[in-house]
Amino acid sequence: MSKFITPxxxxxxxxxxASKAQAEDVQAKEAKSVVEQIVDxxxxxxxxxxxxxxxxxxxxxxxxxxxxxxASAASLTNAAHLQKTPSxxxxxxxxxTGIPTIADVSPKANPRGISIRFKLPDNQFxxxxxxxxxxxxxxxxxxxxxxxxxxxxxxxxxxxxxxxxQFLEANPSAKAFVKLPKPAPASYANxxxxxxxxxxxxxxxxxxxxxxxxxxxxxxxxxxxxSQVVGAAPNxxxxxxxxxxxxxxxxFRISVQLANEGDNINDPTAVWPDDRTQVELxxxxxxxxxxxxxxxxxxxxxxxLNLVDGIAPSEDKILLARPAAYAVSVSRR
Length: 333
Ligand code: HEM
Known about the structure:
Layout: H1 2-31, H2 34-45, E1 60-69, H3 73-76, E2 87-94, E3 113-119, E4 125-131, H4 141-153, H5 163-170, H6 172-179, E5 193-194, E6 199-202, E7 208-217, H7 226-231, H8 236-247, E8 250-258, E9 278-288, H9 293-299, E10 311-313, H10 317-332
Antiparallel strand pairs: 1-2, 1-9, 2-3, 3-4, 5-7, 6-7, 6-10, 7-8, 8-9
The structure holds protoporphyrin IX containing FE.
Protoporphyrin IX containing FE (HEM) binds near residues 113 and 115.
């Protein structure tokens, strides 16, 4: 009898412990915040974890320079770096994905990023963190997680419609994002960047306006020609920036596109019309690649909610989720 019972009991025990493990896995996932799950999926997509690197925008380069405010900036905000005095800046340009060795011409390296840290007196600072596209795919962290999960679930042999096709059909803003052209820029300094999330700006008279950053290269937007893409070196963007800054400077105009009455200020998928007023904040001038740039890059943690008086977040759910996501990534770097 026991000859039969023993394997049966063992079998039952295996089944019970397997379903317990599954239940624990489900519980662990439930216990994880949405942003932590996003960082997990970003890491998976990048074939990570890649120790020492960011979970997203892993490949980048740091430059230093100065920001000089324009006279118009103070009409929008009383923020300390947007009055008369120039500030020193640290800027990081980056490629999308958590793949530290991604080739600069890869379509997956788009969108590019720009992160700007303005140094203020008394060791204070404030950041702008922007992308090279004028829209985000989705308006909530939950939808962003679902978008990334649909990407992971889609295999070369997935039956049609694939999980990502289904997601894009159900989410027109994500479809519009995916359809954006993805040209490789001739230089990080020949690329426009967009803040996407709106902020509330308050001036000395306590007047408030909502707006989004736009960062426009003074050297113009230039994409690589098809023939240049083929021969481009994997790291041509950082090499080009280093050469450019040895020979001179790279400058950008930073401005804020103001929301009109009725523009959606809490939805980064909503593109506001081009006719909206732009307030010039000033000129960002990059001068050098610092000698300790790699060390600096590893240590620095940009955060769009490192703010100062005169600038406050909107209620955009994507914006409000970003600091927690970046903190998870920083803690794992
Ligand atoms: C819920 C939405 C988002 C999530 C979960 C997310 C997640 C991340 C993570 C995990 C990192 C790495 C952080 C680090 O280790 O320092 C990162 C970096 C970055 N993200 Fe996001 N992101 C989101 C939305 C955005 C948006 C809306 C923008 C721009 C408008 C943006 C621009 C960037 C840039 C430029 C970097 C590189 C920062 C650097 O240079 O250190 N992200 N993001």
